[in-house]
Amino acid sequence: MNPIRRLTAATLVTTAGTAGMRRRAATTAVTLTMAGTLGFGVMTPVASAANGPCYDGRCKITVSAPRTIKVDSRTFGFGKLKITSVSSRSVKMSAADGRLSGSSSPGGTVKFNNLKVWVKAVSGNKAKLQLFPTRY
């Protein structure tokens, strides 16, 4: 009988008809080769790089006001996060053409839809921010 070959993400299995023999091979190399050939993970960084480092909602950035940060409008409901002012006591920001606004002192967070902005530190007129998406 002809051997039946199945390729799965976990193993490569070759079964010979009535003999019932099975041979399993490590597929890490096969999986990685297939992922590289199909291009998994290649498009996301390229698309993000074209739109800015914070487009996917995951970044650490140092800003001074005024500053506009591009984000994915399909994911977050707005395309631009605007830092309107930076002082030693607070960082003020807005999104959705001013319909969403907020401010935070160093160490605090502001949430716009499902994008959270953490004001890590403020020094002079510069603020260190970390953006990350949330589920809700």
Features:
four-stranded antiparallel β-sheet; 18% helix; globular; 11 strands; 3 helices; 136 residues
Topology:
Blueprint: E1 4-7, E2 12-15, E3 22-25, H1 28-38, H2 43-51, E4 59-63, E5 67-70, H3 73-76, E6 80-86, E7 91-95, E8 100-104, E9 109-112, E10 115-123, E11 126-133
What does it look like?
- The chain is globular and about 35 Å long.
- Residues 6-16, 18-35 and 41-48 have low confidence and may be disordered.
- The protein is an alpha+beta fold.
- The strands form 3 sheets. It has a 4-stranded antiparallel β-sheet, with no helix packed on it.
- Helix content is 18%, strand content 43%.
- It has helices at 28-38, 43-51, 73-76, and strands at residues 4-7, 12-15, 22-25, 59-63, 67-70, 80-86, 91-95, 100-104, 109-112, 115-123, 126-133.
Structural class, by secondary structure, is alpha+beta
* DSSP helical segment count: 3
Shape, principal axes of CA atoms:
globular
Total strands: 11
Helix content: 10-25%
Summed over residues and divided by their number, the pLDDT gives a mean of 76
N/C terminus separation: 55 Å
Please give the order of strands in the largest beta sheet. Answer: 4-11-10-9
What is the N-to-C succession of helices and strands?
A: EEEHHEEHEEEEEE
The radius of gyration is 24 Å
Instruction: Report strand %.
Output: 35-45%
Uncertain segments: 6-16, 18-35, 41-48
Largest sheet: 4 strands, antiparallel
